[in-house]
Structures are given as structure tokens and as C-alpha cells.
Amino acid sequence: MPSDQIIVQGIEFYAYHGVPDAEQQIGHRYRVDIVADIDLREAGRTDDLRHTVSYGDLARLAIQIGTSQQTRLLETLAEQMCAAILERFPPIQRVELFIAKRLPPTGTITELAGVKIVRARS
Fold first, then answer.
1. Which of 8, 23, 37, 98 has its CA 20 to 30 A from that of 56?
2. b or e along 90-112 (b: 16 or more beta carbons within 10 Å of the residue's beta carbon)?
3. Quick one: CA dihedral 27, 19, 94, 68, positive or negative?
4. How many CA atoms lie within 13 A of 103 on its CB side?
5. Which SS3 state, helix, strand or coil, does residue 97 take?
6. What angle, 0 to 180 degrees and rounded to 10, lies between the N-to-C axes of helices 74-88 and 55-68?
7. Would the pLDDT of 103 be above 80?
8. Is the domain 5-120 a CATH 3.30.2350.10 member?
């Protein structure tokens, strides 16, 4: 497995996810960080985008998935994002994804609450 990584941090979008119905109506800001394991040697040698994955494409895919539907759980959203990344970008061997709700309604002052999952090709 390559030790090279593409890292995209601080992807933000506004969406309508949450367990209570009220959260699905009001919405929240979300943050996503992606770390993708990929062999970058050929891209480094050739300076050719065809041998890597565009970080813009990764960010746009996360936003598209995050804003196109509603889920109750961040765990569901994270699974969907990881599955789509591995499906759409075959050079990526493993993806680590952190997704968080900004200023969640926890009854406390909390900057964010989220989940981090790691998925790899079998």
C-alpha cells in the first residue's frame, strides 16, 4: 500500500441531517476532511493530472453527497462518501474521512461533533 496521500481539509457545506425532525428542517453547517491513500510517484514524475486525483473533485463529491439527500446519522453520510470516493476514483486504495456537524445542538457549548471512518479496497 502506498504511503502517499492526498489531503483535503475543511470542506464545508450547509445541509439538513440529524436525528430530530427539527434538525432536518433547520439544517446545519458541516465540515469534511478527507485523507486518500494513493501512489503519487507517477504523477510526481510526469507532472500529469491523469496520474493522480484532483482534490477539487474529491471536495465536490463530498459536497454533492452531503447536500443531495437527508440522513439521520453522520455515520450514514460518512459511509456514503467513502463508498463513492472508492467507486469513483480507482487509484485511491484507502480513504479516511472525518465529518462533523458545526455547533451541534447538544445542550452544551460544543464547536463540532462528528465521526471518523476508514475504508479500504478489499
1. 23
2. ebbbbbbbbbbbeebeeeeeeee
3. negative
4. 5
5. strand
6. 140
7. yes
8. no
The residue written with cell numbers 507517477 in the block is 42
Q: Which amino acid is at 80?
A: Q
CA 36 distance to own-chain centroid: 10
Q: In 4-118, which ranges are continuous DSSP H helix? A: 21-26, 41-46, 55-68, 74-88
pTM of the model: 0.93
Locate 35 and state its grid cell: 485523507
pLDDT per residue over 31-76, tens digit each? 999 999 999 999 999 999 999 999 999 999 999 999 999 999 999 9
Active site residues: 101
Per-residue burial over 21-39, b = 16 or more CB atoms within 10 Å of its CB, e = otherwise: eebbeeebebbbbbbbbbb
Q: Which residue's C-alpha cell is 484507502? A: 94
Q: How confident is the model at residue 18 (pLDDT cuts 50, 70, 90)?
A: confident
Domain spans of the chain, in order of start: 5-120
Q: Is 7 exposed, middle or buried (0-12, 13-18, 19+ CB in 10 A)?
A: exposed
